[in-house]
Amino acid sequence: MNNRLFKGISFFAITSIASLFSPSGFTTDINKLKSQRTLFTTIEKKLKTKKDRLYHKSLKQLKGYPLLPYLHSLNLINKLNKLSQKDIDSHITTWPSMPSNKRLQQKWLIFLAKKKRWADYLTAFERSNIRSSKYQCLYGVSQYKEGNKKIAWKKATTLWLVGHSQNKACNPLFQAWKTEKQLSQQLIFQRFWLTIAKGNIKLAKYIDKSISDNDLKKQTQLFWRIHNKPQRLTSTKILNKTQEKHRLIYLYGIKKLARKNITQATNLWLADREAYPFSLKETTKLDKWLAIRLAKNFHDDASQYIVRIDPSFKYPKVTRWRIRLALINRDWSSVLSLSEQLPEKDMEKNRWRYWRAVAINHIKKQQGKLNTNKSILTQDIFTDLSQERDFYGFLVADISNTPFNMNSAKDTVDTLPLQKLASKFDAFERIQEWLYHQRFYKAQSELNQLKPFLSSKERKMVAYLAQQWNWHHQAILTAAKESLWNDLQLRFPSPLSNIFAKYSKKQEIDLFWVMSIARQESAFNPRARSHAGAKGLMQLMPATAKQTAHNYKIKYRKESDLFRPKVNIALGTAHLSKLISKFETNKVFATAAYNAGASRVNSWLKKRGHLPLDIWIETIPYDETRQYVQNVLAFQVIYKSLNNQNPKMLSTKEAAMMSLAAFSPRPVTIEEVSRRGTNEAP
Questions:
Q1: Which of 596, 681, 621, 613 is nearest to 391 (CA)?
Q2: How many whole angstroms separate alpha carbon 599 and alpha carbon 601?
Q3: Crossing angle for the helix pair 149-160 and 185-197, nearest 10 degrees?
Q4: Which of 328-332, 379-383, 525-529, 532-536 has the lowest mean pLDDT?
Q5: Distance CA 303, CA 306 (A)
Q6: Is the pLDDT of residue 511 over 70?
Q7: Please, which residues bridge with residue 529 across strands?
Q8: Given 109, 472, 591, 647, which residue has the most CB atoms within 10 angstroms?
Q9: Distances in Å between the alpha carbon of 1 and those of 6, 356, 384, 611, 627?
Q10: Is the C-alpha dihedral spanning 326, 330, 331, 332 positive or negative?
Q11: How many CB atoms lie under 10 A from the CB of residue 494?
């Protein structure tokens, strides 16, 4: 198998083991456990409001409860003013593997800094493993306050030379450093360029205010001239490209200019790159950036410019986009010849095997050498591809109307090692309790802390423990991390199937499409959060959720409702229903819109909606969205197969829009074929 995402199928025959991993495995009295769980929740809430009476009163009742050390840690945090370093050390020595130790150490360090106990801070810092910038800053302050200026200034230099804003805890250290005239103009100048390299223009402007040296100021002023008007690069007198900083300004300016006028920027770069002493790294980076930008923007002359940028096919990613541009033009000869320039490892991937085969068939057809009445399955490359379990394998199988191959291989596993592993580490007991309390991030922290102590075999077994505990998100992640590609039961679970079925039916959309979206979006983590702000199982943005709730009269009060599976699925299926309607029942376009937004998909359709559907997918300019669409389509096949449904990846209408449709034995009506390319959104 060439695509890791879908490698092979085998699943462990695990029977009659649920009891081995129930909480009764570590607490014999189930009634006592229920009481402890209830008591834990109550005490935790009390301790978070600094009320410890119930905690002290209930210690005897909580004896043996796996999460008791966590409550001990909370209690210590509440009385830091009564503690010594010895108390902190004693707690950590008693429970060394507790993730909550980190928070305890952080709170202790902050307490010591606030109390200006600088010597104690240094001791606590050295004994901890806390090394984030905030605590590094306070370490520098502590060294300064204790009179260790040499160490303090060394730490200040390290913390200063970054391309981003530092934690405000650094301010006293930097101020003392500056007051004692240790912050040189050269160090300020260095940081200016670090911020530019990171794209932090606002911070760079602030840093520049501190540069007073005339020679250094001239260089930063030159940067701002190019930043404000990159067209100035066309003047041969403005920059001396033999100087390092001038080259940095030039490289920055070319990118800035390209965002306004990529033709002008590319022509300028092609004229200058050989004439001046740019390093190989500088040249390579800008070559690839310009070429990919030209391709992804579908510039009219992209292919011609890319030939000049990379005439000898040095950059595989650029070559891949050259093939995609040839696909847009349906220049099959170029698709074939360009694919031969790919590295061998790329040529072996199913993506490019597929497009080479499609190109060969179209070339033969154009030359009149292809019998279109003959099934494409008679051709070895398509026969081989149809046996693969990935998007391209499923695509060939679907178009050619042949059975999907799940590459099944069944293994067994002894239940005893799983039971033994579950009882080997205290962390597994705590994980089960955090899962019971629906505290998934706490459970994840426990596992992250434990993993370095597990053997390779044990790390694989974690996936099956997670499966038994219905921690599907972790089972999926661990299966991928440990290359357990072959167990589809493990990798494609169906949690909350009744809720998914209910709302899919209500919105009249395919259940397995919805399940595939949720699997791709969050791996079934109900508490999932993205950097962009999407939340829950189906990763809805709050604004989308609010609008959807209003349009479909779904009860939704606040953003935290998105972490409730029922609400999230109700909103997610409603949003999918809207998209599938908007894009005339085309799941490909609707899936792309769920990931990238309907407006972007509309713009892509306006530019390339006339293309065969597989080419349209292949030329989606967002790498993430392209892979997203392919994953979701393939996941549908797997889910349908696992649920004994007829596993079709494409509707008849969608199949008729593919490049291979002309060679397909799958029956397609004349009306459907005539509708190719007319699925542009209204």
A1: 613
A2: 5
A3: 30
A4: 379-383
A5: 5
A6: yes
A7: 535
A8: 591
A9: 8, 18, 11, 29, 17
A10: positive
A11: 18
pLDDT score, position 367: 83
Phi, psi of 408 (to 5 degrees): -70, 135
Chain centre distance of CA 588: 21
The pTM (predicted TM-score) of the whole model is 0.90
* Alpha-carbon distance values, 74 to 34, 49, 54, 111 (Å): 22, 10, 13, 15
Dihedrals phi, psi of 198, to nearest 5 degrees: -90, 0
Domains in the chain and their CATH numbers?
Answer: 415-491 (1.10.1240), 497-674 (1.10.530.10)
CB crowding 226-258: b at 16 or more within 10 Å, else e:
bbeebebbeeeeebebeeebbbbbbbbbbbbbb
Average pLDDT value over all residues in the chain = 91
* Residue 540 DSSP class: B
pLDDT at 1 over 60: no
Torsion of CA 429, 435, 439, 441, to 10 degrees: 80
Nearest to 22 by CA among 364, 617, 435: 435
Q: How many CB atoms lie within 10 A of CB 560?
A: 10
Residue 358: both structure tokens together: 């499609």
Please tell me the predicted confidence (pLDDT) of residue 21: 37
Q: Could you tell me the two tokens for 180? A: 């004692």
* DSSP assignment of 352-421: HHHHHHHHHHHHHHHTT---TTS-GGGSHHHHHHTTSSSHHHHHHHHHTT------B------HHHHHHH
- Which tens digit of pLDDT belongs to each residue from 39-59? 999 999 999 999 999 999 999
Residue 408, beta-bridge partner list:
9
Mean predicted confidence (pLDDT) in 247-256: 96
Dihedral over alpha carbons 639, 407, 3, 661 (to 10 degrees): -70
397 close to 403: Cβ distance less than 8 angstroms: yes
118-127 and 133-145 are packed helices; what angle lies between their axes, rounded to 10 degrees? Answer: 140
Predicted local distance difference test score (pLDDT) of residue 28:
56
pLDDT band at 436 (very low <50, low <70, confident <90, very high): very high
Per-residue pLDDT tens over the stretch 253-308? 999 999 999 999 999 999 999 888 899 999 999 999 999 999 999 999 999 999 99
pLDDT in tens, 414-423: 667 888 999 9
pLDDT in the model for residue 213: 98
In angstroms and rounded to an integer, the radius of gyration of the C-alpha atoms of the chain is 30
Please confirm, yes or no, whether 146 is among the known catalytic residues: no
Between the two ends of the chain, the Cα-to-Cα distance in Å is: 40
